[in-house]
Amino acid sequence: MTLSSLLVPTFSQMLRSLSGWLDKAEAQKGPAEAEALLGARLAADMYPLATQVRFACVQVHEAGHRLRGLEFPPIVAELLAEGRDSGDNPGTLADAQARIAQALSFIEGLAPGALDADPQSPIAHALPIGMTLDLTAEQYARDWVLGQFYFHVMTAYAILRSQGLEIGKADYVPHMLAYLRPADATAAG
């Protein structure tokens, strides 16, 4: 398995799920109540839904650039600033959907194999708290990017569920329905 074959479909599938949950929120709650969900949190000391969306998108952009040895584009700083400010300024559902669409467009627009640098190449990942993680590209993808990405996506899911949105496992992984075994014709007869 390559880093591209692992990360690109994972990011794409789960960003599409996240977008679908926001669509369901608007359909089930109505526009105003759905928009208010962007400020919802699981706990007082956690970031709200609006931040979870943006920080999931940050992971996509950061990984796509870091694994290719490129500097981060301005979108990363914008997403981080918006995410950190989301408690006071959560934005709109349209804003959240636009950020998801940008991340999808970016990751799906990469050339095949674009993230497949030497999996053992070193990556120094500086954290905002003043610590640096020394990882290989493979370790960064497996141990940091996927964990961080899923943390923010799953937290968004949990916030929406905690606010009464009617979503379930099929909404979390709708891409798995493509692997559903067709019913055995003789068993149905």
H and E string: HHHHHEEHHH
How many domains make up the coordinates?
Answer: 1
| Widest sheet: strand ordering | 1-2
How many extended strands? 2
Helix content: 55-70%
According to CATH, the homologous superfamily is dinb family like domain
CATH topology descriptor: Four Helix Bundle (Hemerythrin (Met), subunit A)
Q: Which parts are unreliable, with pLDDT below 50 for 5 consecutive residues or more?
A: none
Strand content: 5-15%
- CATH architecture grouping: Up-down Bundle
CATH class designation: Mainly Alpha
Biggest sheet features: 2 strands, antiparallel
Oligomer state equals single chain
Shape descriptor reads globular
Class of secondary structure makeup: mainly alpha
Distance between the termini: 41 Å
Gyration radius from CA atoms, angstroms: 18 Å
Query: For the residues shown, what is the average pLDDT?
Result: 94
Counted by DSSP, the helix tally is 8
Description:
This protein has 189 residues and is mainly alpha-helical. It has a single domain, classed as Four Helix Bundle (Hemerythrin (Met), subunit A) (Up-down Bundle). The chain is built from 8 helices and 2 strands. The chain has a two-stranded antiparallel ribbon with strand order 1-2. The longest helix has 27 residues. It is globular, with a radius of gyration of 18 Å.
Which features does this protein show?
189 residues; Four Helix Bundle (Hemerythrin (Met), subunit A); mainly alpha
How are the secondary structure elements laid out?
Elements (H helix, E strand, L loop, with lengths): L2 H27 L1 H6 L12 H18 L7 H12 L7 H16 L13 E5 L5 E5 H26 L6 H4 L12 H4 L1
Antiparallel strand pairs: 1-2
Helix pairs in contact: 1-5, 1-6, 3-4, 3-5, 3-6
